[in-house]
């Protein structure tokens, strides 16, 4: 895993975009007292190096047919990267990370219903070479959709 060095201006631009990913470069530049071109070039570099990605986040709990599940996997060390790659390639998987503790890999999965979740686990997760244990937890309500480094975020109520 490679890292990118960030300076104070990079961090400030990221903080501005964490508050509103659609904010105009001109507004960010004005707020940070730098040129719009500086913000634009910094943004491009942050995006190209993979530090920054602007996306939309939909609340799966508000879909009429959705089953959101959290998967915790134990994986043999030599197959870790292959398992992560296989999960990340699946359209049902919205998030994959390496974790420390009881599980080695965490994945967030969105399927249409319980039957589709079961099929996904049986056909695409458990057969992966190197997966030694799976734990699946259903997420029934999202109370906070997103947070920035300062702990701010949009809160929702369980429905």
Produce the secondary structure layout:
Blueprint: H1 8-19, H2 25-32, H3 36-48, E1 67-75, H4 80-89, E2 93-98, E3 105-111, H5 114-125, E4 131-139, E5 144-147, E6 153-155
Helix pairs in contact: 2-3
Task: For the structure shown, list the relevant keywords.
alpha+beta; 4-stranded antiparallel sheet; 159 residues; disordered C terminus; two-stranded antiparallel ribbon
Characterize the main sheet.
4 strands, antiparallel
Helix/strand order, N-terminal first: HHHEHEEHEEE
What general form does the structure show? elongated
Q: Which sequence of strands runs across the widest sheet?
A: 2-3-1-4
Radius of gyration: 19 Å
Low-pLDDT segments:
151-159
Any overview of this molecule?
The C terminus is likely disordered. By secondary structure, the protein is of the alpha+beta class. Helix 2 crosses helix 3. It is 35% helix and 24% strand. The termini are far apart. A hairpin with a 5-residue loop joins strand 5 and strand 6.
In short:
The protein is of the alpha+beta class.
């Amino acid at each position: 895993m490679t890292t990118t060095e960030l300076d104070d201006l990079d961090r400030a631009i990221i903080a501005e975009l964490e508050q509103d990913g659609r904010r105009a470069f001109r507004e960010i530049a004005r707020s940070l007292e730098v040129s719009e071109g500086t913000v634009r070039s910094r943004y491009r570099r942050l995006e190209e190096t993979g530090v920054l990605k602007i996306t939309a986040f939909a609340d799966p709990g508000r879909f009429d047919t959705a089953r959101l599940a959290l998967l915790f996997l134990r994986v043999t060390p030599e197959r870790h990267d292959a398992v992560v790659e296989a999960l990340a390639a699946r359209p049902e998987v919205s998030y994959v990370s390496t974790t420390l503790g009881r599980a080695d890999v965490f994945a967030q999965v969105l399927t249409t219903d319980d039957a589709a979740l079961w099929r996904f686990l049986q056909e695409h997760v458990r057969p992966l070479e190197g997966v030694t244990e799976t734990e699946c937890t259903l997420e029934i309500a999202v109370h906070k959709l997103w947070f920035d480094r300062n702990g701010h975020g949009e809160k929702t109520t369980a429905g």
